[in-house]
Amino acid sequence: xxxxxxxxxxxxxxxxxxxxxxxxxxxxxxxxxxxxxxxxxxxxxxxxxxxxxxxxxxxxxxxxxxxxxxxxxxxxxxxxxxxxxxxxxxxxxxxxxxxxxxxxxxxxxxxxxxxxxxxxxxxxxxxxxxxxxxxxxxxxxxxxxxxxxxxxxxxxxxxxxxxxxxxxxxxxxxxxxxxxxxxxxxxxxxxxxxxxxxxxxxxxxxxxxxxxxxxxxxxxxxxxxxxxxxxxxxxxxxxxxxxxxxxxxxxxxxxxxxxxxxxxxxxxxxxxxxxxxxxxxxxxxxxxxxxxxxxxxxxxxxxxxxxxxxxxxxxxxxxxxxxxxxxxxxxxxxxxxxxxxxxxxxxxxxxxxxxxxxxxxxxxxxxxxxxxxxxxxxxxxxxxxxxxxxxxxxxxxxxxxxxxxxxxxxxxxxxxxxxxxxxxxxxxxxxxxxxxxxxxxxxxxxxxxxxxxxxxxxxxxxxxxxxxxxxxxxxxxxxxxxxxxxxxxxxxxxxxxxxxxxxxxxxxxxxxxxxxxxxxxxxx
Length: 524
Description:
single chain
């Protein structure tokens, strides 16, 4: 298979890889994109079947996707098969690594929550005296956030709150709140908790993905070639210059190994896949930091209340339905000191049913209770900020290999007392707010899903000004190799409580524009 030489090799096709391809090709730079899977063909790959027609009745093949709680037999083919692509973790510390190897990657399936990080995340050491600062601020990234929000058509309500930076929204209008949401907002506001609305990428034609918003623009330039089913094994280095000069990859089906050369390497395979590739290649880790500071958001905490006047199907018109969103409201000032650092957002939905697990009943008595409470419930959950810690890390497990003979990752990530105290505060706060609204709390748990469940893993190749304590510079270039750029979530210094997608896209746009300028000047 003959592959022409390109200026830039991009590994990965999700939001970060798609943005890099769009920016670089529009600057006239030729790019080759390697993607580990095929392009999804809905006509070929999708069919309608009932659960009884499936071998495992919809529950899925045991052992195929043990860590993907989102998976079932109806959608199993969209996730990476863990039998082919295993990873390891301590038995007592599970980690949910959720992967997609289709063109467009996980951008095909994200929930479209679209937030900016604030300087509470970019500059925590300056603002609250905890953790490490990014080498950039919100002001540095704000112009790129705006451009990304325009491409992805983000809707939201402007508030002017420093912990919840406003965006360049295409739609800021929302329907009037129902009476239950009004009541909740009134109670929260009295306690000093600000209530807003979700911010959401509308995209185009029902999709807000790399494959419909980014890659078409890159392909239209004639400067992008895409090789599907290419499993990248190793980044290669020129012995004379010490710079990256290409990559070995394997054909997913035949196992045939090939090598491709490029002037610059852009890694966009996702935080952990990018880190695995770099560790297996043995490069860009003079600091010893690579693989450390793995972090994501806590998803969980569940508090459910029932509104008495909505039971038995007697809810007045416009009482139930709708949602409320409370961005981080803890530890925003020195006056608000808790037994944890950082914070969480609280999201509330109105109009749900009660679960059978909420009542110590069975049979007709349980069914009667469920019927009575149907449609009367209001629920609350959180996205919580985990603290980046050096000991939460990944490393190569040479004793286990994937289906193509490539050593896998061993992942060690545990929550600390800080995370435990944060989630307790969140559950207690939601319960208090529901009680103050006059509603009956029927479920309360401060439990959260394992690390990785949010599918927002970041941080293992953090950026920084000091090459001794970081892997990348502020332009996402490796300190050790200026012609190797990491544009996915691996570059994050902190995770925040926010969905990272807008930040990943904005960082990729910023890094790619800087890279394009340096390539044109001949400095890379």
